[in-house]
Every structure is written in structure tokens, then in C-alpha cells.
Amino acid sequence: MAPTQPERLSLTKSFGGWHGRYRHWSGVQNCDMTFAVYLPPAAEHRKVPALWWLSGLTCTDENFMQKAGAHRAAAEAGIALIGPDTSPRGTDLPGEHEAYDFGSGAGFYVNATQSPWSRHYRMYDYVTQELPALVQAHFPLNGREAISGHSMGGHGALVCALRNPARYSSVSAFAPICNPVQCPWGEKAFSGYLGDDREVWKQWDASELIAAHGSELPILVDQGDDDNFLRDGQLRPEALQYACSQAGVDLNLRMQPGYDHSYFFISSFIEDHIAHHAQAL
Ligand SMILES: N[C@@H](CCC(=O)N[C@@H](CSC=O)C(=O)NCC(=O)O)C(=O)O
């Protein structure tokens, strides 16, 4: 079924622009979905480019918009920010709400192939096809897109950009899960959503995609060196660095001393990322 028109849930002025939250029926995910759009002041006079932000585990559309401090830089650069949710909502599959790293809040931006997840958990098609078409039809966007995200959403941003080489003008990530086929979060999510075939998993792994196909797009990654998930082996930036060095991909991996995994870290460097995207958009 086609998606319904977005129903506005709230509209809040911020740095001269407007932050709106919207709900619509998603035909891709078979449930209602909520998303956020920040429109800069320039959008009152002309169509503007968009930066997609994919959030991490446990997030909704709200974490980034409220905690990253991105509105000022987006307003100044004339860039819209689009924040999808991180999973289907309103569904009640067995075990869906029991863990923070699988099921609700943890869609991992893949298209699930395994029952019962495959009926709803199609976040990749949702963020690369259905939602882009919806926002393009209902907001003053000029069709140029960039993509970024955090942790699980950093993985999602890298994978969306790598699987769609001509689509995004730029890509960046904060503390991304760089090699999900080799970390506990990824192994749990991919075995649940995609089944046991690890060759299939590689199609959703940034380091594996770069090893197989390379990339023309430069990649900006910030990673705190006091990040507990880095210590736990969930993020593996060294795998991304190795894949990029072997494939000749331009990776700017910035290890940031003393920073952890939180939105304090993201808000400290978000202006650099918006500048990175602004020069490409
Ligand atoms: N055990 C924690 C883990 C959740 C967490 O840290 N989530 C991060 C993303 S981690 C990778 O995708 C996050 O962005 N949290 C939201 C926030 O506003 O900080 C827990 O259950 O909270």
C-alpha cells in the first residue's frame, strides 16, 4: 500500500527555521512511522538540500534533533535535516521489545528476510526509498542529499551511501559500527534479521562493501577514544581503516581524545560534519 500523507504532530521554531514531527502510514514497513524534518530559514524562499541523519540503538526521531545542537549550523548552511525513527513501531512481534539491541529501536537499517521480522523490519527500503519520496513530495527540497548517523545509524549511513554510489553527495558518521559482521551487536542483529548465511551479512557491512566494491566518495568519521563501545569491540574503526587503505578510499578517521559515545561527543563535532556536507551539497 502507498504511504499516507504526513500528519503533522508538532511544529517548533528553532534558529529561524522550523522543526516538525510527522506521522504517516508506511507501506514498506506495514505500520505507522514517525519522522522529523528541520527546515532552515532559506526553505521559506527556495528549495534546499537535505542531510539525512540515521540514529543509533534506542533512539527515536527525537534524540538527534534535541541533543545534537545541529539546528544552528543547518540554518546557517541552508540545509534541511531529516530524522527517521530507528525501527518499525506499534508492532508486537515475539521478543520485539525485550532487548535494547534487537527489535524496536534497533532496526539496523537492513531489509529483514527472516520471519517474523521481514513483514515489518525493512528500514533500508524505508530510509532510501519510501521516506525520501514522501519528503520530496511534501517539503521544499531540491533533491540533493547527504547522509550521516551515529553508531548503528553510522553503520546505516555508510551502508546506504556505499550501496547507492551516485545517490548521496557526501557521507559521514559518528562512532559507526564499522564491521557489524565481526561484532556482538551485528552478529545478533544480522542473524535475527538476515539468517545464518554470513555471506548475505556482508552486503550490509561497510568494511566488507568497501573491500568488495571500493568507493569514490570521501568518508568523514569521528570516533571518541574513551568510548565504552569502542573498548568492547562493537565499533571496529580499524576494520574500516584497513578496508579503505586497501581499496584506496579517502577516509578521514578522526580519533577524538577523551570523548565517549554520547550526544555530548556528537554535539562537539556536528558543525564540522555539517560543513563537510555543505561543501558537497
Ligand atoms: N545500554 C544503553 C545503550 C544505548 C545507547 O547507548 N544508545 C546510543 C546509540 S548506541 C549505538 O547505536 C544512543 O544514541 N542513545 C540515545 C541517546 O540519546 O544518547 C541503553 O540502553 O541506553
Question: What are the main properties of this structure?
Answer:
AB_hydrolase_fold, serine esterase, six-stranded mixed beta sheet, binds the ligand N[C@@H](CCC(=O)N[C@@H](CSC=O)C(=O)NCC(=O)O)C(=O)O, globular, 23% strand, alpha/beta, 281 residues
Describe the structure.
Serine hydrolase involved in the detoxification of formaldehyde. This protein has 281 residues and is an alpha/beta fold. The protein contains ten helices and nine strands. Strand 1 (7-14) and strand 2 (17-26) form a beta hairpin. Helix 4 (152-163) packs parallel to helix 7 (206-213) and helix 7 (206-213) packs parallel to helix 9 (237-247). The mean pLDDT is 97. The structure holds ligand LAXINWYW. Residues 56-59, 63, 67, 100, 150-152, 261-263 line the site of the ligand N[C@@H](CCC(=O)N[C@@H](CSC=O)C(=O)NCC(=O)O)C(=O)O.
Q: What fold name goes in the CATH topology slot?
A: Rossmann fold
Strand order of the largest sheet: 1-2-3-5-4-6
Name of the CATH superfamily: Alpha/Beta hydrolase fold, catalytic domain
Helix content: 25-40%
CATH architecture: 3-Layer(aba) Sandwich
User: What is the tally of beta strands?
Assistant: 9
Report strand %: 15-25%
CATH class: Alpha Beta
Q: Which oligomeric state applies?
A: single chain
Average per-residue pLDDT, rounded, comes to: 97
Organism: Tamilnaduibacter salinus
Catalytic activity: S-formylglutathione + H2O = formate + glutathione + H(+)
Family: Belongs to the esterase D family.
Active site: 151 (charge relay system), 227 (charge relay system), 261 (charge relay system)
